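Table S2 (continued). Query chain:
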Amino acid sequence: MRAAVYHGPRDIRVEEVAEPVAGPGQVLIEVSRNGICGSDLHTYLGSSTGGAAMHVPGVVLGHEFAGTVRAVGPGVDDLAEGVAVAVAPIEWCGTCWPCRQGWPNLCRRLAIYGGYRDPLPGGLAPLVAVSRRAAFAVPPGLGVVEAALAEPVAVAVHAVRRAPVALGSSVMVLGAGPVGLAVAQCALAAGAATVVASDLSPARRQAAARLGATVVVDPAVERPASAARQLNHGGVDVVFDTTGADPAVDDGIGALRQRGTLVSVAGWQQRAALDMGRLMAKEIDLRFTMTYEPAVDFPVALALLASGAVDAGVMISDHIPLDEVVGRGIEELLHHPDRHVKILVDPASG
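Corresponding output:
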């Protein structure tokens, strides 16, 4: 079968690889769609920090995917062939201190399908074998194509769970890409009364407005902090940063009320320059999120997608064949991010 294989920075090749089989405790999935993630862009460019710097050469890429079970391995008796599933693409050891606390996303030996740290082939291929615990049945009312968004939505679910978003609270989301839009919708589902979304892209600001943002801001024209204070004189309760950019975070600090909470969701590619004096003067709580806890966050993500509380249709901007994953996928997102939200790859096409 043909798959997108990572060989190094700016070297992703669609080439022949062996078809996988379902081993003990595994399920074999026919992939319907695989989304292109911002971390895939970092990997392609050549990252020196975080998960994107840990890719194993020679491994099939892709960690945002859903598909249909085609076979199950020995020991799997609770999932049948033909069931549509979304994949939570992390693997954990179960024995280190974070794992023993029930925090698999913080495992000291965390690995991700798509070749992060361990050679676990990902979803940019027609077939992929994953552990049974990674596969979550798609609920009624949700298509398998749209279920490919479960992974970034689970990131958002986890971020909102990590934040004090309460009924009637006010929220700002910095960056209206796939994760930012999902965070905005999850915050609304959690009870937020006001959501301010900030992004440089007109298309993404438009998507944020369609998805329920109270106010959308172009940070090149208006400071998000000013917009936030116009809505809430003291500032917002919670700011989620999905940009990983110092100017955006600085705006977020300015937008927060005293004793507000700044939640970093972004995959930072450089050291941050934080104004610690302003954080101290306002007694700001600073929190971070790392992926998700699969057993907790994936069912919620799938339920939100199935109910329409998170609108997959607005977030999906294009479907492309596997052979064009670099040109119409990765390179397109690098050079024209303003034209897209989420590009999905069909591994069976092209």
